[in-house]
Please model this.
Amino acid sequence: MPRLGLYAMLVAVLAARAVAGDPIRASGLLTPLQEVEVGSETLGTIIWIADEGSLVAKGQPLVRLRDEIERHTVELRKAQTSAARHAVERYKKDYESIQSLHKQKIIHDEEMRTREFNYLNAQDHLAEAVANEKLAAETLARRTIYAPTNCVVVRQLKKVGETLVVSAGLENIVFVVHIDTLCFVAYPDAKFAGQIKVGQKAEVSISQRGLQPVVGEVIFVDPLVDSKSGSFRVKVHIKNPDHKITAGLHGIATFLTEK
Model:
């Protein structure tokens, strides 16, 4: 082959490598996107806990505490608010009805001030009743602990019938994990620092399960290199909506960078 042709081929190969870059490979570990020990700040007896292995959507109940007293308190506060609202309406009509009489000097100033005071006092009582109703509703709401995210219940830390002591401000009840998205934490060698960027794609192979490689996206690159290991952290998010990929497995991430 003429030298000119060989030179052209060499230039083409070098150009292609300059665009695509050499692949960077690094080992790492698959972890849940979130691992949370969910607990309560409230004293009480547990009457229900979601079963281990349960899929619980964000905002759905995980734990319920006994709440009969709190529910009755809410009903009482609602009744008090209703009574206070009726009192405001009555005193308002009473106050407005004598204003024209007062202008005509039929009603004395003292009587006018008394009617006005009753109306304002009724408004204050209504505001207090509304605040008490909100407080009772919040207290009742705290008797149910809700999932902070879409999660799987991994372990029950308490059992039904146990009473929470909450001596340290919070007592954990269940351990949950979010695995709709997994986080692969890789540790590339320090020589690759600066070559991996947020938003870059990475192919992750999990040989332990024989799964097909999955593609994720780099969401974090540690700006610091660990002096002891000579590596830096990279986090890759991998979609896992059907939960086919198990967290806790080791794998290899392949990054394709541009030079």
